[in-house]
Design a protein that fits this description.
The structure holds two protein chains of two kinds.
Chain A lengths: L7 E16 L4 E17 L3 E5 L6 H8 L7 E6 L2 E2 L7 H23 L2 H6 L4 H23 L2 H11 E4 L13 H11 L5 H14 L16 H14 L4 E5 L7 H18 L3 E5 L2 H7 L2 E6 L2 E7 H6 L4 H9 L39 H5 L5 E4 L2 E3 L10
Helix pairs in contact in A: 2-4, 6-7, 6-8, 7-8, 8-9
Chain B lengths: L9 E12 L2 E13 L4 E5 L6 H7 L8 E10 L2 E2 L5 H7 L4 E4 L3 H4 L6 H13 L3 H14 L5 H4 L9 H13 L5 E5 L7 H18 L2 E6 L2 H7 L2 E6 L2 E7 H6 L4 H9 L38 H5 L5 E4 L2 E3 L4 H15 L1
Parallel strand pairs in B: 3-8, 3-9, 6-7, 7-8
Antiparallel strand pairs in B: 1-2, 1-4, 4-5, 9-10, 10-12, 11-12
Helix pairs in contact in B: 4-5, 4-7, 5-7, 7-8
Classes of the chains: A alpha/beta, B alpha/beta.
Chain lengths: 393, 339
């Protein structure tokens, strides 16, 4: 398992994504769907974080927000020591973001601690230290200049380094492009070589993902679902990204094809030290591929820990119930099962207090009143529950 | 549960189903035979294109317009299903043999309330009057675990969640006390915690209504949990059939064995999954011998040339393979080699 001092590739802090619900003649915002509500996690180099949960838990929204296919409502997304959050914002939004995230915070700390040195000493993150120094030398404009200069380049850098593999291999490949164009486009945009070099690399990538390089001039419709998913994987790998987000990449595939793709992902991960955020609803698949797993429920992380720890010692009642709900392919294992009552509530109007309390088998009074925070119960094991470990089967 | 002294409720013999398409005639089901006994759950397992759904739909002659039963015999109780008139068939379909589908949203009619749809079948099949039927419908909704059935009965399908819709569909299917329920991937579109609810519900209702279930699924976990017996299909043929313990503990067909070892599991730490090479071929060009020969770890020329028969290799355990011995000898090596 990855040691703690390993390089952090992705850090997500207090990420929120609300979708406004509009109604009436003037399309006023009448409510907010709290799809992702204040989640934080880190992914180290070479590590795979699994995001697992049922529909509506916000796992895909999390992935899409990290990729900035959705603009986050709140929070900070750091890719390898760089705050990428304002890169895709409008100037006004970015200005507001920098004021709230940095200027106001540093100003408050300055009043609290007095000197600049003390402020910097009290900041843990390199990125905060860097911007605190800039702030105290050049003010808010300094931070803005540093963050917002060369935006086109920064955006391209981000797009190159955060790649995605989608669920549906049919709609995620452009039917009018040949495979060489699909896989090679990113390299072309990022000027990663001459046409000849790009073609050689595409051929090489196709062999890596298990496709014959003879197919390089074919179109997507000439491939089966599993082969298309291989093309999607090759496309993601082509630009040597720092991070790959895979959103239900194997869910649409038949069992025998699914295992081929899972094995391919595991091989690639081991061979090239890839860093993954692996989003899926199937806990068994997530378990197979991840080092660390975050179980999500209604826009929040219920439990986050290393894979082995999660399965040996699940502490959140939702994790325990989820595991017990999965049918085991062994007719002689008659397992005890908790059948959770009811459906997942709507994120439009989430329950008060702990969002799981209406379905929780061990909920007490406090659970409907206060919201538990994600606490580190033991080393590297985070649980958001007032009574961790109380529910066992 | 398997009881050979009892007469089967449903008996399918040598079923062949063909479809006409632009590219030619697709032989979707090729000589499938099985029996369903009272009170048992029979799983039909297979991947997409294996013919599992078509097989089940054929038993009540529910095929698309371009499909037909080319050959075979289907006997339900004392009826020869294939020679029944449409009127006679209608008395069985939906009443004695009913179905639930994967996607309740497409199977339910969106412009009628769920009450209307249940009441319709009660009026039609059981000759109830409106009030009686409504009372019975509320009863059924309560039985399938829908809270506040008096209110829910007047709601439209889109007002219900996925799990509730599936419950409503089950209520509809059970309205006439069917003796056979055909369940086509009924939990595939549901979340696992909801799937657990529906599976429990189906088990309870099966006991209460004493019905037989044909459970079509690709999920081996669900099979292990629900079924008494299973038939495994590949390329429109049955490749293996046995009781559930035997199928899981002693698979004797390379495809069954491959499937079992290719799924990630939460109860085991496997280093690497076995992966069956290749893809299911287009139904128009399956290999001419054994359908699985081009993906099989143990195949040789004989397999490519000649399709083996489904043989009874031990009591009530059937397999369609030339090389069971070789598979048993080499399966560990194959698994190691994969690692």
């Amino acid at each position: 398992m990855m040691p703690e001092n390993e390089k952090v590739i992705l850090e997500v802090e207090h990420l929120k994504k609300y979708f406004p619900v509009r109604a009436g003649v003037f399309k006023r915002v009448v409510a907010q769907v709290q799809a992702v509500d204040d989640i934080s996690f880190k992914v180290h180099e070479g590590e795979t974080l699994g995001l697992v949960g049922e529909s509506g838990c916000g796992k895909s929204t999390t992935g899409m927000t990290i990729l900035r296919l959705y603009e986050p409502t709140f929070g900070r997304i750091i890719l390898e020591e760089e705050d990428t959050t304002p890169w895709f914002m409008t100037t006004t939004e970015a200005k507001r973001y920098i004021k709230i995230m940095y200027a106001d915070r540093f100003e408050k700390m300055k009043q609290e601690f007095g000197s600049l040195d003390e402020v910097i000493k009290n900041l843990n993150k390199e990125i905060d230290k860097k911007y605190a120094e800039i702030y105290f030398e050049q003010g808010e404009t300094g931070i803005r200049q540093d963050m917002m200069k060369d935006l086109t380049e920064k955006r391209r850098y981000f797009r190159k380094n955060a790649q995605v593999i989608f669920q549906d291999p049919y709609s995620s490949l452009n039917p009018r492009l040949r495979i060489i164009e699909i896989i090679g486009e990113g390299m072309k945009v990022n000027k990663m070589g001459t046409n000849q070099e790009i073609r050689d690399r595409v051929a090489h990538l196709m062999e890596i993902v298990g496709l014959s390089k003879d197919y390089i001039y074919r179109y997507p419709h000439q491939f089966s679902g599993g082969q298309r998913q291989r093309i999607g994987i090759a496309r993601a790998l082509a630009v040597n990204p720092k991070l790959i987000i895979s959103d239900e990449a194997v869910s649409a595939l038949d069992v025998s094809i699914q295992s081929q793709i899972i094995n391919l992902l595991v091989d690639l991960k081991n061979e090239y030290g890839l860093t993954f955020v692996f989003i899926a609803h199937d806990l068994a698949v997530v378990k197979h591929i991840s080092d660390k797993i975050a179980v999500m429920y209604l826009g929040k992380i219920a439990e986050l820990t290393l894979k082995k720890e999660l399965f040996d010692n699940p502490l959140h009642p939702y994790t325990v119930s989820l595991m017990s709900a999965i049918p085991i392919p062994d007719p002689e294992v008659k397992k005890k099962r908790v059948v959770l009552e009811g459906d997942v509530p709507s994120p439009l109007n989430p329950p008060s207090g702990c969002r799981f309390h209406p379905r929780c088998p061990v909920a007490k009074e406090i659970c409907s009143k206060e919201e538990p925070s994600l606490n580190e119960i033991s080393d590297n094991h985070y649980v958001s529950c007032f009574f961790p470990g109380e529910f066992k089967i | 549960m398997l009881n050979n002294n009892e007469k089967p409720l449903l008996k399918v013999e040598n079923l062949h189903v063909h479809f006409k398409t632009e590219d030619g005639i697709i032989k979707a089901v090729n000589g499938v035979s099985f029996e369903l006994y009272p009170g048992e759950t029979l799983a039909i397992v297979g991947e997409s294109g294996s013919g599992k759904t078509v097989t089940a739909l054929s038993t009540i002659r529910l095929l698309d317009e371009n499909g037909w039963i080319e050959e075979g015999k289907i006997q339900y109780k004392d009826n020869d299903v294939l020679s029944l008139s449409d009127n006679q068939l209608r008395k069985i379909r939906g009443k004695e043999i009913s179905m639930i589908f994967q996607e309740p949203m497409t199977a339910l009619n969106p412009v009628f309330t769920i009450g209307d749809q249940i009441i319709e079948s009660l009026e039609l099949h059981l000759d109830m009057n409106k009030q009686e039927a409504r009372r019975k419908a509320i009863d059924l909704l309560r039985k399938v675990g829908i809270p506040e059935p008096e209110r829910r009965i007047d709601q439209y399908p889109h007002e219900l969640s996925g799990g509730m819709r599936q419950r409503a569909m089950i209520a509809m299917a059970l309205s006439c006390n069917p003796s056979i329920l055909i369940a086509d991937e009924p939990t595939t579109a549901l979340d696992v915690t909801i799937q657990a609810q529906i599976l429990e519900l189906m088990k309870d209702l099966q006991k209460e209504f004493q019905m037989s279930i044909i459970f079509i699924t690709h999920d081996l976990g669900v099979v292990a949990e629900m079924a008494d017996r299973a038939i495994v299909m590949y390329g429109g043929e049955v490749v293996e059939a046995a009781d559930i313990i035997t199928i899981f503990k002693k698979p004797r067909h390379p495809y069954t064995w491959g499937l079992m070892n290719s799924i990630p599991r939460i109860d085991k730490d496997e280093e690497r999954l076995l992966s069956i090479p290749g893809v299911v071929p287009n139904p128009l060009n399956f290999p001419k011998g054994c359908k699985f020969s081009n993906r099989c770890f143990f195949a040789d020329e004989k397999c490519v040339e000649e399709n083996p028969n489904l043989e009874e290799i031990e009591e009530n355990h059937f397999s369609r393979c030339w090389h069971i011995d070789r598979m048993l000898r080499e399966m560990h090596k194959v698994k190691e080699g994969e690692r």
